[in-house]
């Protein structure tokens, strides 16, 4: 279980970007974090894995406070936090298997990593997870030979190799076409229940959030202004979160198609 309370983040002397967030996510539940660009979605995920230092507040993962950790204790806590990225963050010239095993770097010794002597249990785990997500036959391919959806599956498996207690995904589908995005959302949803993992997904596609998650949290200017079921996420909620800021995806989609056809949002 992930418990965030009164989380505040201020970069330098600027106005706070997160203004006292409270959020509890149970294991095996998938939460979509929606909000306009700049609302603070990425900052929230980065506070959880401590890529940025929270200014104040508390973040507990299965009862362990993450906010004050330093040094070795922080490194131990970090390996319990799996992260999936919009741009996949793979090492292109390495194989799929090598990318996946990078998820064990928090566990194996430097010698084991450099000499690529991962314990057999790690290799077995890698194969079984790759099989689970349908990429085992690519184990020895270079990462850059894969399609976007396959690359994101590698990213997901790498995160799961950490044996995480929470999975954070920052716009995991924003670089993918709509069909592949759906498959990745379905995969994240099934993994959450199979592995009893809380999963937080930053996502700007509201219709995907509504279809593939069971809870939506809406951020605006660093404040949580919606927290509820997709069925309660109505036009008012949409207006409250995006009103006067930017048109959400669905409204953009009503613009007549361009010469290229569907926008794949390669941002
Ligand atoms: N490293 C940083 N230093 C200063 N300001 C930042 C930094 N990262 C993000 N911000 C600011 O924090 C706000 C929230 O950004 P972000 O968390 O990336 O929002 P989102 O992911 O919802 O688009 C934005 O105004 C952004 O400019
Ligand atoms: Mg972001």
Automatic annotation (TrEMBL):
GO MF term list: ABC-type phosphonate transporter activity; ATP binding; ATP hydrolysis activity
Domain of life: Bacteria
Domain ABC transporter: 2-246
UniProt keyword list: ATP-binding, Cell membrane, Membrane, Nucleotide-binding, Translocase, Transport
Pfam families per the UniProt record, alphabetical: ABC_tran
Membrane association type: Peripheral membrane protein
Localization per record: Cell inner membrane
SUPFAM superfamilies in the record: P-loop containing nucleoside triphosphate hydrolases
Residues annotated as signal peptide: none
Predominant localisation class: membrane
GO cellular component, as recorded: plasma membrane
NCBIfam families: ABC_phnC (TIGR02315)
Stated name of the protein: Phosphonate ABC transporter ATP-binding protein
Organism from which the protein derives: Halomonas salipaludis
């Amino acid at each position: 279980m992930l418990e965030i309370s009164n989380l505040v983040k201020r970069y330098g002397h600027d106005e706070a970007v997160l203004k006292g967030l409270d959020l509890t996510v149970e294991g095996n539940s998938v939460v979509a974090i929606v909000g306009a660009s700049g609302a603070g979605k990425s900052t929230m995920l980065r506070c959880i894995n401590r890529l940025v230092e929270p200014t104040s507040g508390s973040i507990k993962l299965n009862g362990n406070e993450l906010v004050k950790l330093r040094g070795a204790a922080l490194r131990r806590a970090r390996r319990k936090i799996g992260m999936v990225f919009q741009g996949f963050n793979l090492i292109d010239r390495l194989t799929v298997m090598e990318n996946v095993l990078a998820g064990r770097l928090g566990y194996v010794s430097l010698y084991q990593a450099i000499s690529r002597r991962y314990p057999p249990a790690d290799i077995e785990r890698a194969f079984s997870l790759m099989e689970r997500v349908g990429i085992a036959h690519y184990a020895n391919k270079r990462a850059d030979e894969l399609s976007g959806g396959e690359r994101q599956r590698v990213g997901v498996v790498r995160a799961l190799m950490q044996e995480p207690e929470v999975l954070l995904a920052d716009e995991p589908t924003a670089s993918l076409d709509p069909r592949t995005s759906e498959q990745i959302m379905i995969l994240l949803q099934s993994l959450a229940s199979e592995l009893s993992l809380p999963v937080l997904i930053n996502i700007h596609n509201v219709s995907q959030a509504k279809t593939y998650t069971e809870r939506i949290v809406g951020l605006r200017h660093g404040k949580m202004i919606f927290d509820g079921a997709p069925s309660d996420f109505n036009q008012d909620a949409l207006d409250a979160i995006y009103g006067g800021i930017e048109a959400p995806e669905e409204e953009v989609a009503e613009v007549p198609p361009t010469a290229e056809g569907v926008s794949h949002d390669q941002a």
